[in-house]
Amino acid sequence: MAAAPRSGATLHIKPPDGFSTRGEASSVSKRWKDWLAAFEIYLDVANVGKDSRKRALLLHTAGLEVQEICRGLFSNSAVATYTDLVTALNKHFIPVGNFRHERFVFNSCAQKQDESVSAYTTRLRKLAATCEFEKIKGEDDIIIDQIIAKCNSKHLRRELLQEPNLTLGRVLEIARVMETTNKTRRVKEQQLCIRCGREGHNPNDKGRCPAADRYCHYCGKKGHFQPMCRLRWVEDDNEDKDYEEENACKSQ
Predict the structure, then answer these.
(1) Quick check: 165 and 141 in contact, CB under 8 A?
(2) What is residue 215's DSSP assignment?
(3) Cα 150 vs. chain centroid, distance in angstroms?
(4) Residues 6+ apart with CB under 8 A from 234
(5) pTM for the structure as a whole
(6) Is 131 within 8 Å of 103 (Cβ atoms)?
(7) Number of neighbours of residue 233 by Cβ within 10 angstroms
(8) pLDDT per residue over 161-204, tens digit each?
(9) What tens digit of pLDDT does each residue of 220-245 get?
(10) N or C: more exposed end of the chain, with fewer CB within 10 A?
C-alpha cells in the first residue's frame, strides 16, 4: 500500500496561466474575474498565507502586462497589501456596470438546442445577477428595455446602450432625431448621383460626373468617390452584425 504523504509536505500545484489584457473591455473584464477566481483557488490549495508572497505570486503569475499596469497604478506609493493590489486591479479591469447593456444581453438570451430548461434557468440566473432588476421603477423602465432588445435599428440600439441615465423621454428624443435624419437622407439619396453624391446629373452621364474617371480612396476601384463606396457600406453593416453577435455570445 502506498505511503500517505507526510504532514506538511509541499504540494506541487500549477498556478493559472498568465493573464492577457488584450481584447474588448467587457471580454477582458469577464476573463479577469475568472482568472482571479482561479488564482485565489490556487492560493488556497497551495496554502499560501503570507501577504507579501500572495502579492508577489499574483504579479509573477499574471505576467508582464499586468505588472506594467501595476507600475502605473502604484507609481507614487507602495502597494500596502494583497487586498489593495486586487482592489486596484478590479477597478482597472472591471468598469462600472451598464445595467441597460446587461439587460439587453439577458433579453437576447435564448434556450440552446438540446439545452434543458434547468440549465437554461441557471444561465438566466447568472445573467440576471448584473441586471439590477430590483431597481425597476415602473412600466417606463420595462418599455426602455424592450425597445433596446427588439427595435429594428441596430444604430439606435447602439446609441441607446451608450447613453447614461436613460429615460423613456430621452429614448423617444434620440429615436425621433435618428428617424428624421434617416428619412431626409433617403429622400436626398434618391436625388443624388450614386457615383459622386452630387445632384444635377445621371450616374451614367460620365461627361458631367466628376467621379467617372476618379479612383475611390477606400476600395481603389475607378468610378466613384469614397463616401459613395458600396464596399464601405457593406463593411459598416458587418461591424453592426459583429456587435450583435458579440453580445449574443455573452448570453451563452
Answers:
(1) no
(2) B
(3) 19
(4) none
(5) 0.46
(6) yes
(7) 11
(8) 888 888 999 999 999 999 888 887 777 666 778 788 887 777 77
(9) 888 888 888 888 766 555 555 555 55
(10) N
